[in-house]
Amino acid sequence: MIEREAFTSRRRYADGVYSSSKWPPNQPMCMHHEQSYAFEFPSLLLFACVTAPTGGGATPVAESPTVLHALPAALVERFERVGWLLVRNYNDDIGASLAEAFGTDDRRAVEGYCRANAIRFEWRPDGGLRTWQRRSAVVHHPLTGRRCWFNQIAFLNEWTIDPEVREYLVEVYGQDGLPFNTRFGDGEPIGADVVQSINEAYEANSAREPWQAGDLMLVDNVRTAHAREAFDGPREVVVAMADAIRVTDCSPTIEVGANA
Question: pTM of whole model > 0.90?
Answer without folding.
Answer: yes
